[in-house]
Amino acid sequence: MTKPLNKRPRIFLGLLDICGFSGMVERGLLEIGIDAFFLDMGANAYGHTTSQKRYWITDFYKSSTLRFKQTRSLSRFNPARYFWTVIVLFATIATILWVGKRFDIIVLKSGMGFSTNQADLRFFRWLGRTLVFTFHGSDARPPYINGGYVDRPTQWLTDRTRQTKEHVDRVSKYATYIAYNPLSAHFLNGSVCTIQCLGHAIDTEKIKKAQLSACATNQHANDSVRILHAPSAPSIKGTKEIRHVIKKLQSEGHAIDYVEISGKPHATVLEKLARCDFVIDELYSDTHGAVFALEACAFGKPSVVCGYGAEELARFVPEEDVVPTYYCRPEAFEKAVRKLLLDQPFREEMGRRAREFFEKRATPRAVAERLLRLATGEAPANWFFDPKDIHYYQGFGFPKDGAKKAICRLVEHGGVEALQVSDKPELERRLITFSKS
After folding, report:
1. pTM above 0.85, yes or no
2. What is the CA radius of gyration of the chain?
3. How large is the average pLDDT for residues 89-100?
4. For the chain, which terminus, N or C, has the lower number of CB atoms within 10 Å?
5. Of 371, 366, 377, which is closest to residue 5 (Cα–Cα)?
6. How close are the terminal C-alpha atoms of the chain, in Å?
7. Multiple choice CATH, 218-360, 3.40.50.2000, 1.10.3660.10, 1.10.260.40, 3.30.200.20
């Protein structure tokens, strides 16, 4: 049972980062005087902020884990394999004991801790620690409503669906609180915090640096409108359709400076953001605005985001937590671009609202304060939802017919049980009804 806190809590964050979430939360917690530490065991390919602190025990854990991985390619007769197996086992146990003793609140991405059998999670709960698990996308979203998996074989999709559900079930029972997007939380159970209520912090230092760089660079011609699209994965962002609409508008004589950037360093993307007039994010999103849209907010740039979830999001996301993008259905995308292209006062007002939202809701300090409210049991009731109440099935990253086809494939291949929502009969019925509509 979780012990009540009668002091300022010490908070551990780990072990993987998603677009700088944990690093920014650590920074915000330190700003408000909370003893916090983020242990990043990922590759940090995007160069997001790592911890501002160092401890010898976590350095030892990271280095021994690396050496252990390197010895896996050695012959099984090589003694180095066994030496580093013993060392990493010792380092792991020591680090678990240190985290359990030192910290009151433990925040883990996807509920992924130090062990594969959740022994560490059981230990932390036995100590009475508060465990907060944050999910961020494909780690818990049903694969059959994930556009990134649309071309996968049916057996692969079936296996991935089962594996995702099994992981969610394994770790969820140890969580004190779970935070996730309500439009993807079909596999979760009980009371879940709407992750939009926590938000995602943007690195203010990188924003300032990009703004300074942009000021030193020539701006685009005054008679054109610069539109930026920066897809991390063009196939699920609707990039092909976006290009088609832009070409159509250009053929009509509109002065559009269209900039598309992909696979470039994060700093380069931010510099392009600082110099654009507005952003086109994605066509099939299950939230009002993900990280790229929030970065646009930091620069006071409006964003066009499309998806099918407006009505469902209105049921779960409090008004003050709605990212102020131009959120519309995919079929209204061209209309949205025209509006921002031709109506400069509207575009400027959207940019003002975006910047205001960033300053109030998306700074490291603001997100850290809300995470602290959740972890200490002070979050309001309207932050929470029950996954049994989900009515959204159109998914993420593809047109809604893609989700229907994927659901049908799974049911034909493995029966209704393959959807992995038999613990929610009404939700299961709704999914089947949707797939046949």
Report:
1. yes
2. 23
3. 98
4. N
5. 377
6. 45
7. 3.40.50.2000
